[in-house]
């Protein structure tokens, strides 16, 4: 019997994985390009996300490796940092008040969504609390596994919430006239080649430092800080070429859509109603707090909407880039939410969740 060489045996899985990655990126690029051609707001990120999500639900084995994920987040961070000199500390005086309101909004939306999932869909308290928590999906998933909660159900609720926000917010803000259909960043000067090299070097260096101290979302925020410092100091003028910013936005959309590749259709369909209902509760509560911000501060309504939206940091900051929303305001608030969720949710689960033995039974 003819034997397959060992090198070939190892090459086949790698080649298959590479084809899956290329398929994911191609589907994302096609979806983003279609939405951009149709002039839909936030077209690149929304189109890529929806196209990849549909393909993943249909059963395609889509994936994006960590190296591409990190590269996409660095590009996004550099693009956001290039806006810092224009937007820096625009609403700084309002930060203490709005961050405090955000913490309260996060607590209320978590409790409200949890109560809905328990009373309407019969979820246990631990799973309901974790599913109702806005953002910090990776931390929530780890905590859910440790507590014996329903991890697939939680993932469905969290992912559908991000999908709806990423696809719906650009349309809502544009239709209501609260954000322009195209970003002003698209008309910014492109940095020179030495400037681009400096931006990439500063972004990677800052990201590695943040990663070393275990800062959340280190690749994106590190690149944002590195780029912002260079622009703020006047050392670099201009930003990434439009095609590189486009790659970053398509990449973020594909990352979100690819989450569905790990979900079984039966599980997804079984929790759609719970996801939509809990999302509605969270949005109503968040909207109430956004109204308070609008009435008590001078923050632009569109900025507060994206900052208080209970979605993932990378997706909301990508929307800030595409819709010319203040990236500093949005970034500070989503980082604050991430820290609050990471610290507070384990305590809430310990106090109000079911004991471990009850969950395991």
Can you walk me through this structure?
With 361 residues, this protein is mainly α. It has one domain (20-360): Na+/H+ antiporter like fold. Helices cover 75% and strands 0% of the residues. The chain has helices at 6-37, 43-57, 66-81, 84-87, 95-121, 125-132, 137-147, 151-175, 193-212, 218-232, 242-257, 265-270, 272-296, 301-308, 313-322, 327-352, 356-360. Helix 9 crosses helix 10 (218-232) and helix 14 runs parallel beside helix 16 (327-352). The chain is globular and about 60 Å long. Residues 1-12, 181-186 and 355-361 have low confidence and may be disordered.
Main features:
17 helices; 361 residues; 0% strand; single chain; globular; Na+/H+ antiporter like fold; 75% helix; disordered N terminus
Topology overview:
Elements: H1 6-37, H2 43-57, H3 66-81, H4 84-87, H5 95-121, H6 125-132, H7 137-147, H8 151-175, H9 193-212, H10 218-232, H11 242-257, H12 265-270, H13 272-296, H14 301-308, H15 313-322, H16 327-352, H17 356-360
Secondary structural class: mainly alpha
Query: For the residues shown, what is the average pLDDT?
Result: 83
CATH-derived topology: Na+/H+ antiporter like fold
Strands, total number? 0
Assign a percent range to the helix content. Answer: over 70%
At CATH level 2, the architecture is: Up-down Bundle
Total of domains:
1
Q: What is the highest CATH level, the class?
A: Mainly Alpha
- Beta strand %: under 5%
- SSE topology string: HHHHHHHHHHHHHHHHH
Give a quick precis of the structure.
With about 350 residues, the chain is mainly alpha-helical. The chain has helices at about 5-35, 45-55, 65-80, 85, 95-120, 125-130, 135-145, 150-175, 195-210, 220-230, 240-255, 265-270, 270-295, 300-310, 315-320, 325-350, 355-360.
């Amino acid at each position: 019997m003819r034997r397959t060489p060992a090198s070939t045996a190892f090459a086949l899985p790698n080649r298959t994985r590479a084809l899956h990655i290329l398929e994911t990126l191609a589907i994302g690029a096609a979806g983003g390009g279609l939405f951009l051609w149709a002039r839909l707001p936030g077209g690149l990120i929304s189109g890529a996300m929806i196209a990849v999500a549909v393909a993943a639900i249909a059963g395609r084995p889509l994936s994006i490796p960590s190296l591409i994920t990190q590269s996409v987040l660095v590009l996004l961070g550099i693009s956001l940092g290039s806006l810092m000199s224009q937007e820096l500390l625009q609403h700084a005086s309002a930060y203490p008040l709005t961050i405090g309101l955000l913490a309260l909004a996060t607590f209320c939306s978590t409790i409200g969504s949890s109560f809905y999932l328990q009373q309407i869909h019969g979820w246990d308290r631990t799973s309901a609390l974790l599913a109702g928590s806005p953002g910090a999906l990776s931390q929530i998933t780890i905590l859910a596994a440790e507590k014996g909660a329903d991890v697939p159900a939680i993932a469905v609720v969290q992912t559908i919430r991000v999908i709806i926000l990423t696809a719906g917010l650009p349309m809502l803000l544009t239709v209501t006239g609260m954000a322009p259909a195209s970003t002003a960043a698209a008309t910014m000067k492109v940095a020179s080649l030495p400037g681009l090299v400096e931006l990439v070097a500063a972004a990677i260096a800052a990201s590695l430092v943040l990663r070393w101290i275990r800062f959340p979302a280190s690749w994106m925020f590190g690149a944002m800080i590195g780029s912002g410092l260079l622009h703020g100091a006047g050392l670099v003028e201009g930003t990434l070429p439009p095609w590189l910013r486009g790659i970053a936005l398509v990449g973020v959309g594909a990352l979100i859509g690819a989450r569905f590749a790990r979900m079984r259709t039966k599980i997804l369909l079984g929790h759609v109603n719970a996801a939509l209902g809990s999302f509605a509760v969270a949005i109503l509560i968040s909207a109430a707090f956004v109204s308070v911000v609008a009435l008590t501060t001078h923050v632009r309504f569109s900025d507060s909407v994206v900052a208080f939206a209970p979605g993932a940091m990378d997706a909301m900051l990508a929307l800030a880039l595409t819709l010319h929303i203040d990236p500093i305001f949005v970034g500070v608030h989503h980082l604050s939410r991430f820290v609050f969720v990471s610290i507070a949710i384990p305590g809430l689960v310990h106090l109000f969740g079911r004991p471990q033995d009850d969950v395991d039974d």
